[in-house]
Amino acid sequence: MLAAVMGVLYAYAMFQGGFVSWFLFCSVLSIMILNALFIAYPLRSLQVTRSFSRTMLSYNESMEVTLHVEKKQPFPFLFLSVEDDVPAGMEGLGQSAGTIFFLSPALSLSHSYDIQGSRRGEYWFSAVTLRTGDLFGFITKEYDVDLSRPVTVLPRLRPLKRWSGLRNENQESTPSPVRMMDQSYSVAGVRDYIPGDKMTSVDWKVSARSGKLVTKEFESQEGQGHIVIIDNTIEKGENALEERIEFAASFMDYCYKNGVPTGFGFSTGEDVLLEEGSKRAHFQNIYQELAKLQADDTSFDEAPFFRQMFHGRSLLYITSVMSEARMEELQQVIKNRNEVVIALCRSESMNEEEHIRLEKLRGTGAVTAFVSMDENAFDLTS
């Protein structure tokens, strides 16, 4: 159709002559040439990058995402649409994840937007989509730039209530996972103060010299730490699993701020995932594992962790179910001179048989803690 229009205008200019007819022909010809340039310019020649203000977010923390487009020549696209693919689960904070640049000759273009991590998980940003077109809307070009990169949202942390009061009336001493909270450890170094750290762990001398608050870091001592094992089956639904994960993360945060050496594993694993440690990097690894932890469709009774043989360890087992098979496995763990604390999330949904099994476990030396969650904290009762 465009060729027909040009043909008509050329014939008109040839037969009519004069300034107006040739001006009309040359004007339309210029527009056609410019339109052809818009269509011909290769989008793949543009260099696109994505930058994050951070790649690890706490619960409900926001971050800034910036898209950069670099052109090799100052070519003014009629329009250039740049759109990011934001993964589901990341919430926008008002700004659009894309924008349109009109007739911009700049060599460097950028667009920023903010998003918020409202649910734990590992989120993968994938492609950035570029779009442009011609003057008349006949042709639209699109090009996807693969910029795969993950962002981790950590589980929500809540304070723990009444943890230190847990104990088994059948035992003369308090189990290690409970007793550990008030013990002292050898100072291995210092780190920057984090809101929530105990004031008793602040190193005031180093703080005075450095001009900022720093907190003591404690070294792990063999035999003085404990292992947190989380039930990652989906026996009572995803919401129950999310509550167990949040409690595990909150407990880890409590241990970190108190310098308690802690390890981590899950019930469907065959061994401890991370052995005891008390350094910041160690707990960061645990938080990341909890953020990425997915429900395992393995049957609750087929989880292999408690079938392995280990001795002299201190375990905190976080679950929402207590089957006959799991009770027998835990009894064997206790017989092998291991200390066991069982944290029961959503215990109100447990039936009478499960409560009877818990009583039997108490009789063999286990400590049970019933975990209830509200908006602000986890409350634990024995």
Automatic annotation (TrEMBL):
TM helices/strands, residue ranges? 20-43
Q: Which InterPro entries match?
A: DUF58 (IPR002881)
Name the chain's protein: Uncharacterized conserved protein, DUF58 family, contains vWF domain
Tell me where in this chain the DUF58 domain is found: 190-341
**A Pfam family name for this chain?**
DUF58
Q: Which UniProt keywords apply?
A: Membrane, Transmembrane, Transmembrane helix
